[in-house]
Amino acid sequence: MTDNNSPPPPPRKRLFVALMGFTCLLIIGIIYLFWWIPTVGLANIHPSLPKISAALFSILSLVALLGTLLLVLTTALGKDILFTRFMRGVVIKFLLPVIETIGKLLGISKDTIRQSFVAMNNSLVISQKYKLKPDRLLILLPHCLQLFDCEIKVTGDINKCVRCGRCDIRGLAELAQKYRIDISVATGGTLARKVIIEKRPKLVLAVACERDLTSGIKDCYPLPVIGILNDRPFGPCFNTKVDVAKIDAALQAVLL
């Protein structure tokens, strides 16, 4: 039986791709307006200026279309075609805030868009075919994965876990031991950033909610982050859960 408090399956990356395509067309339309409105005035200044501005408009439109096409193909094929890292930065730093605003106008919640964004980001990261040694990876977990009433706090050292099996920390600790990967439990974004600076990994596999994963991916760029959404059967930040099998599959995709 499905828990009524369990979140619905996250939307696929195609939602974010569709919104990204719509945003691209909107940006092209805005560029066109900036070109079309002053065209008459430009002609009065110099007869060649409308042609120059038209050329610039065409170049900007072409760049926007090609960039969107490259991201769609990379996401669909799972292969690093061209400029994936750069385009991921454009999406994270520029397009995501715009897409969230457009989604709000279309009645799509931020969390829904962020879920789809995380799925797309994961595809882009995995498409780059990272093959890293375990000591170059870091698993970053939120403290809410541990039971609230557990007397043995694992923040800072997950090896303190006694493997009682009451929460998912047991499976995660065993996974880290199996692959010999650093695993840290953070109480917030500040501590998470501190851990990343100290460990200096080449790739981070992070578990969190939509908001924290999205902000973490943005803050860490250009460091690649694979995000795994947690489940919140009791509400946010309290006795959350995660599918350990998803983390295992993500690790196998990037480990040597």
Structural summary, described in words:
With 256 residues, the protein is an alpha/beta fold. The chain folds into two domains: 13-127, no CATH class; 134-254, Rossmann fold. The chain has helices at residues 13-36, 39-45, 49-77, 84-105, 110-127, 169-179, 189-199, 210-220, 244-254; strands spanning 137-142, 182-186, 203-208, 225-229. Helix 5 (110-127) crosses helix 8.
Widest β-sheet, arrangement of strands: 2-1-3-4
Beta-sheet strand percentage?
5-15%
Give me the CATH fold name of the largest domain: Rossmann fold
Q: Choose one word for the global shape.
A: elongated
Number of domains: 2
Order of helices and strands: HHHHHEHEHEHEH
Biggest sheet record: 4 strands, parallel
**How far apart are the first and last residues' alpha carbons, in Å?**
38 Å
The number of helical segments is 9
Helix content: 55-70%
Which structural class fits the helix and strand makeup? alpha/beta
Q: How many β strands by DSSP?
A: 4
User: What is Rg?
Assistant: 22 Å
Specify the CATH architecture of the largest domain: 3-Layer(aba) Sandwich
What are the SSEs and their pairings?
Blueprint: H1 13-36, H2 39-45, H3 49-77, H4 84-105, H5 110-127, E1 137-142, H6 169-179, E2 182-186, H7 189-199, E3 203-208, H8 210-220, E4 225-229, H9 244-254
Parallel strand pairs: 1-2, 1-3, 3-4
Helix pairs in contact: 1-3, 1-4, 1-5, 3-5, 4-5, 5-8
Index terms:
256 residues; alpha/beta; Rossmann fold; four-stranded parallel beta sheet; elongated; disordered N terminus
